[in-house]
């Protein structure tokens, strides 16, 4: 499983750490969790992953340029090769997050990826419930891959 993230703020970082903790829970066995910053992830890494967790701040109503870059540099390599793979999404924004959700849903729909858990979208400082939702997201995506071939 590949976590592709852009976590420049303390709030995004806290969400990322909760997602990672859920994905690497000791009860989830046989799933290798690889994490890569969105600006450095390669198309090859995205091709070899069995599932994805995507994380980004929402700036000006859209996903970060870093996450957009990750898709821009690998979209055509992923197209047709990764159809049906599960993904999850966590976003942090102070307002106007709908455009970012629409963007990721459009990109992943074009790739044929399957939304495997509800998106986690947090506004303001993430509270305990928000961080628990992030943990649950990471755990859900990873657990879904436990029995994958």
From TrEMBL:
Extract the Gene3D superfamilies matched here.
3.40.50.360
Q: Which domain of life is it from?
A: Bacteria
TM annotation in the entry: none
Which residues are in the NADPH-dependent FMN reductase-like domain? 37-120
Signal sequence extent: none
InterPro entries assigned to the protein according to its UniProt record, in alphabetical order: Flavoprotein-like_sf, FMN_Rdtase-like_dom
Q: Name one GO molecular function term.
A: oxidoreductase activity
Could you tell me which Pfam families the record lists for this protein? FMN_red
Q: What is this protein called?
A: Flavodoxin
């Amino acid at each position: 499983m590949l976590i592709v993230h852009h976590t420049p703020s303390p709030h995004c970082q806290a969400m990322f750490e909760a997602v990672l903790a859920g994905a690497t829970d000791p009860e989830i066995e046989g799933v290798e969790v690889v994490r890569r910053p969105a600006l450095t992830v390669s198309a090859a890494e995205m091709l070899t992953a069995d599932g994805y967790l995507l994380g980004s701040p929402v700036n000006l109503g859209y996903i970060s340029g870093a996450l957009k870059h990750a898709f821009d540099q690998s979209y055509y390599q992923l197209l047709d090769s990764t159809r049906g793979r599960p993904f999850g999404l966590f976003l942090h924004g102070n307002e106007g997050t709908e455009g970012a959700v629409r963007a990721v849903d459009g990109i992943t729909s074009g790739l044929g990826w399957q939304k495997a858990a509800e998106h986690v979208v947090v506004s303001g400082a993430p509270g305990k419930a928000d961080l628990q939702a992030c943990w649950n997201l990471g755990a859900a995506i990873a657990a879904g891959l436990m029995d994958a071939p």
